[in-house]
Every structure is written in C-alpha cells, then in structure tokens.
Amino acid sequence: MRREKILETLKGAGKPLTLDEISQQTGIDLPRLRVDLFRLMGEGKVERRQRGNELTWTLKVSVPLEERYEKLTKKYVP
Questions:
Q1: How far apart are CA 57 and CA 64, in angstroms?
Q2: Residue 9: what pLDDT?
Q3: Which of 8, 17, 54, 64 is least surrounded by CB atoms within 10 angstroms?
Q4: Residue 72 is inside which H or E element, if any?
Q5: 3-state SS track over the chain
Q6: What is the CATH number of the domain that holds 15?
Q7: Per the structure, how many domains does the chain have?
Q8: What is the rounded distance in angstroms from the CA atom of residue 56 to the CA atom of residue 42?
C-alpha cells in the first residue's frame, strides 16, 4: 500500500522529487520512506538521481531490450 502510494506520487509529479517532498506528499515518515524507496529501487521501479547537492527519486524508465541491442551492435560492429 505504501509503495503504491510512493509510485503514484512519483508518477503524478512529472519530475524527480527529493525525499522530503515525497514524505510531505505521501505522509510517510522519512525512515520508513527510505526503506521503501530502496526496496523499489532493488525491484527496478525507481531510481536515484543527483540534483545539485541533493538526491532525488524518480520512476525508472527502462529502455526496451531491442533498443539496447541495436545501440550495442552499432557500437561494436564495423
């Protein structure tokens, strides 16, 4: 339930959010929020980014396997 709330908040924001911003919008306390974010990161659903001096969190945008393969072939095939 908490993790779904976090994902919905990040999706609705449309930009990376700091830990404090996520906490204010979801009502989840910081220690619990950190644990949930790291679990979501382990599941590949969110990612951390650096914005200035603070860390931000955003939904992870995955590149389809075909696109990654195509980039690799262009890089390594003459």
A1: 21
A2: 94
A3: 64
A4: helix 65-76
A5: CHHHHHHHHHHHHCCCEEHHHHHHHHCCCHHHHHHHHHHHHHCCCEEEEEECCEEEEEECCCCCHHHHHHHHHHHHCC
A6: 1.10.10.10
A7: 1
A8: 16
pTM of the model: 0.74
* Full domain range(s) for residue 21: 2-76
Residues with Cβ within 8 Å of residue 48, at least 6 apart in sequence: 41, 55, 56, 57
70 band by pLDDT with thresholds 50, 70 and 90: confident
pLDDT, tens digit (0-9, with 9 covering 90-100), for 15-48: 899 999 999 999 999 999 999 999 999 998 999 9
Tokens read off for 38: 């790291």
